[in-house]
Amino acid sequence: MSSYQKELEKYRDIDEDEILRTLSPEELEQLDCELQEMDPEAGLRQRDQTKKSPTGPLDRDALLQYLEQQALEVKERDDLVPFTGEKKGKPFIEPKREIPAEEQITLEPELEEALSHATDAEMCDIAAILGMYTLMSNKQYYDAICSGEICNTEGISSVVQPDKYKPVPDEPPNPTNIEEMLKRVRSNDKELEEVNLNNIQDIPIPVLSDLCEAMKTNTYVRSFSLVATKSGDPIANAVADMLRENRSLQSLNIESNFISSTGLMAVLKAVRENATLTELRVDNQRQWPGDAVEMEMATVLEQCPSIVRFGYHFTQQGPRARAAHAMTRNNELRRQQKKR
Question: Biased-composition ranges for Basic and acidic residues (predicted)?
Answer without folding.
Answer: 42-51, 331-340
